[in-house]
Amino acid sequence: MIRTDVLIVGGGPSGSACAWRLRQAGMDCLILDQHAFPRVKPCAGWLTPEILTDLAFSPSDYPHGFTTFRSFQVSIRGFTFKLPTHQHAIRRVEFDDWLLRRSGAEFRQHTVKNITPTGDGYEVDGQFYARYLVGAGGTYCPVYRTLFKKDNPKDRQHLIVATEQEFPYDYTDDRCWLWFFEDRLPGYAWYVPKANGILNVGVGGKAEQLNANGDNLKNHWNRLVEKLDRMGLVRGHTYEPEAHSYYVRLKLPQVRKGNAFLVGDSAGLATLDMGEGIRPAVQSGLLAAESILKDRPYRLDAIPKYSFRSLLRLR
Questions:
Q1: In a domain, 289, yes or no
Q2: C-alpha angle 243-246-247 in degrees, rounded to nearest 5
Q3: 110 within 8 A of 118, measured Cβ to Cβ
Q4: Which range of residues forms the domain containing residue 108?
Q5: SS3 of 227, please?
Q6: Mean pLDDT, residues 136-152
Q7: Looking at residue 102, which CATH number applies to its domain?
Q8: What pTM value is reported for the model?
Q9: CA distances from 137 to 162, 221, 226, 262 (A)
């Protein structure tokens, strides 16, 4: 049996941020994830400036591709305008691996199957034990499923389905494009050029609203592909998109039960307007660490529900 102070299930930004703060304070922790890192993660890779502050790093500290946008090209139901901003983009395959290694925590590739609360902690698969348990395993986190789901069902009205692809492409337009609510899409589509000739394109929307409209995301993906070709943004590419899902800001009655915590997508924290997930993930991971270290209540009220204010940040 491997014993540690804190078991963190999930090696993404929320789990790594939690581990980083715990290790800074000298607390032992172990991260478990079903995937080996680096691993591919479908994501536009949007970083707000606040994330750099929260994690105490600057672009010069980051060893991989890092893109800064001073404006976005935005279209809302066909009305197009330029939005001045100051935002960043990374590749999750690089960023998540860097955060995990930077945390200083021990990592094990392991698929969590059984979680058993004990008198004073949690046992995982008969192999791992800790007093504290952090669920950072994303939308289908086993910590949520085992300990929280019965009393904390997730509202499917907040479920977002997305389809996207990230691929090498010799793009000529280095602007970030965002299209909102076009063709009755209850969501938005995007074109995000990244460093070193990498492009991410995708579309996401509310699953329940798509169903109510008698629509599906594949139709909107096909429209996006046609738009990209028509605008000359992407031509001659054979797409192999990936689908995934997540929840925008939920109101779960419990995000802590005993010494078990939910962070990031396991708690449904993506912003309501933009589906921004990385910053809420990082913030929740840090808050969970502070709760463990200082025996504080664990609350997520301070995490912004919307991204709009950050979008308007110019420096």
A1: yes
A2: 150
A3: no
A4: 2-47+90-155+248-311
A5: helix
A6: 96
A7: 3.50.50.60
A8: 0.96
A9: 18, 27, 35, 9
